[in-house]
Amino acid sequence: MFNIHRVLGKRGVKGCAALLTAVLMITGCSGGSDGSSEANWVSIENRYTVDPEKPAWQLDKKEEVTDLTWYVNADWWNTDFGKDIVTKKIKEDLNINIKFITGDDTKLNTFFAGGDMPDLLTVFDSNSQVVSKASTWAIPLNDLAEKYDPYFNKVAAADTMKWFQQEDGKTYGYPNYSNTQADYDSGNIPAKTAFIIRKDVYEALGSPVMGTPEQFQSVMKQIKEKFPSLIPFGFNAIGGGTGSLGDALQDFIGVPLETANGEFYDRNLDEDYLTWLKTLNAVYRDGNISDDSFADDGTAFEEKVKSGKYAAMLLDGTPQQGGNLQIYMSDNEGKEYIAIDGPQSTKGNVPTLNQSGITGWMINFISKDAKDPAKAMQIFTYLLSEEGQILMNYGVEGETFKKKADGTVELLPAVKDMQLHNADQFKKEYRLGEFMFFGHDRHKALSADAFPEAIKQMQAWGKGKLTPHFILENINPNLGTPEARALSAINTKWNSTLVSMLRSKDDASFDNALAAYQSFLEENRWPDIVKIRSEKMKQNKEKLGMQ
Questions:
Q1: Is the dihedral of CA 239, 243, 202, 191 positive or negative?
Q2: What does DSSP assign to residue 165?
Q3: Could you give the CA distance from residue 464 to residue 468 in angstroms, rounded to a whole number?
Q4: What distances in angstroms separate CA 141 from CA 384, 435, 488, one per listed residue?
Q5: d(Cα 154, Cα 156) in Å, to the nearest integer?
Q6: Closest CA to 222 of 207, 244, 234
Q7: What SS3 class is residue 251?
Q8: Consecutive 10-residue averages of pLDDT for the chain (547 residues)
Q9: Which of 200, 232, 306, 497 has the most CB atoms at less than 10 Å from its CB?
Q10: In this structure, are residues 226 and 205 in contact, taking their beta carbons and an 8 Å threshold?
Q11: Which of 262, 192, 243, 207 is nearest to 451 (CA)?
């Protein structure tokens, strides 16, 4: 499928200030910390009797259609419901109609200010005050399951429920793409990061090795000489962050996740990483990284991917670029992008590629104001179940896919053809792999059609290179604290420093930019932030039994 999951990463919620406003509103209109006390507990006496062995949506005899509002804190979310094959089936099976509302933090705040909450709510920042104060405005999933749908406990991951447990011992939100250790161990989670190069370029240069800084710089020069119309090296749009040259590059060369004694490790200042940044600066000075790459937004970057403008790329989020890579591959046989080993650690470290962690991405809640919390809970259970997962990824048996003798599934020829050759129509009619509130990577393993052909070789290259980053999840200082404000300033400073270093006119300018950043750290509570992060890393290990 042309998946867009994690397309915005941690940028789904934009600003701490807006969220602080929101939490004041939450606290102001809340009557206490017990999430269940003020919920709209509807009676199901004449509708169904709960059964731990059967999902409630199959039992519910409610005849009238339930209208629900679902707020998604992202302007880009597709608000259609009931038009494509996936949401049409959800509408039919659950006897519901969903009105999606989208917006940003400002819109999110209006719900808490006005008291007119949607039935369901989805946000993207697990560290936000909106999430941490969920007990004041959302209903615990534990209570909802007990009262309306105990089958939920069969389809929800115990580790994920425990990870999101709040101080009152209850869990209010459930994410998508929450990968547990068992998921990583299964081998069913594909890598999403790769160093890729156009096949025609790679072969014309004699399939060169570019593992060392010297080799890499040399190959970039050769590309410029033989393919002057191409940009030798590209990377994900930087935008307000670091693109794929931050964490993704660190993971690619295996920068450690923690110190030898288990404390927080500043990966941005790792010697190996800085060596590669200095190498990329040399490549830039050679004219082999375009200035446009530092200014391009996501759309501009995608257009260059789609047209094969980059000879080579460090790409983070191959599924998100799957559609663009497939369009290029379909129109340029023999020139498609392939993954190779690319840059390697100067210290001998192996790649520790990251994937979605246990925190996941989109976090879904049922509000206290939900008109029919029983029906809302049925949505959670349905989409988390095997039936819902297959629907979201592959559609309806007989209409979009067929089951094979070995238990895997295969898209029907007409559907597959549209996936390969008409991505826009495919998205509009089928929406496979896109309606992903409770999506999970492991269900992609059911079919060779789960991802476009263009990225399968990249995923094969990544096998065995994934390392869970659980210990680094949710370790930042609590919002509203002096350390959180300092960290926000530090992150902004690092983003600009990274660009400055990559575009430095000489080694002295590179070193000066780095030194200025290191001074900024000391002036902005960095030792305190490191202490907090180390303590939260310890808590993560305890929570997951990693001690």
A1: negative
A2: B
A3: 12
A4: 13, 21, 32
A5: 6
A6: 207
A7: helix
A8: 40 42 47 60 96 98 97 92 97 98 91 88 90 94 98 95 93 95 89 97 98 98 98 90 91 98 97 98 98 91 95 94 92 96 98 93 96 98 96 95 93 91 87 90 82 93 95 92 96 96 98 98 98 96 84
A9: 232
A10: yes
A11: 192
Q: Which two tokens stand for residue 101?
A: 């509302």
Backbone angles phi, psi at 238, to 5 degrees: -75, -40
* Token pair belonging to 513: 């930019």
Convert 329-370 into a string of H (helix), E (strand) and C (coil).
HHHCCCCCEEEECCCCCCCCCCCCECCCCCCCCCEEEEECCC
In whole angstroms, give the CA distance from residue 428 to residue 87: 11
CB 373 within 8 A of CB 118: no
Q: Report whether 216 contacts 283 (CB < 8 A).
A: yes
Contact present, 172 and 166 (Cβ < 8 Å): yes
CA distances from 133 to 33, 35, 109, 252, 371 (A): 8, 10, 14, 36, 21
Tell me what pLDDT residue 26 has: 52
Quote the CA–CA distance of 401 and 393 in Å, as a whole number.
10
The DSSP bridge partners found for residue 96 are 66
Distances 522 to 40, 288, 528 between C-alpha atoms, Å: 50, 34, 10
3-class DSSP assignment, residue 421: helix
| pLDDT, position 297 | 87
Alpha helix (H) residue ranges in 29-128:
85-94, 105-114
| Encoded tokens for 543 | 């929570």
User: What's the confidence (pLDDT) of residue 447?
Assistant: 87
Residue count of the chain: 547
Closest CA relative to residue 177, chosen from 428, 448, 391, 444: 444
Q: What is the full DSSP assignment across 471-500?
A: GGTT-SPPTTSHHHHHHHHHHHHHHHHHHH
Residue 324's CB: how many other CB atoms inside 10 A?
A: 21
- Burial of residue 545, with CB atoms counted within 10 A of its CB: 0-12 exposed, 13-18 middle, 19 or more buried: exposed
Distances in whole angstroms, Cα of residue 86 to Cα of each of 26, 92, 383, 392, 533: 34, 10, 11, 6, 41
Cα–Cα distances in angstroms (integers) from residue 319 to residues 5, 155, 303, 450, in the given order:
8, 25, 16, 10
With CA atoms as reference, report the closest residue to 468 among 191, 266, 156, 269.
191
Question: Which H or E run contains 120?
Answer: strand 120-123
Determine the Cα–Cα distance for residues 30 and 132; give it in Å rounded to an integer.
14
How many whole angstroms separate alpha carbon 476 and alpha carbon 536?
8
In the 8-state DSSP scheme, what is residue 80? -
Q: What is the pTM of this model?
A: 0.82
Residue 16 C-beta-side C-alpha neighbours within 13 Å: 15
**Do the strands 401-403 and 409-411 form a parallel or antiparallel pair, or are they unpaired?**
antiparallel
Angle CA(369)–CA(372)–CA(373) in degrees, nearest 5? 75
Tell me the CB-side half-sphere exposure of residue 84, using CA atoms within 13 A. 24
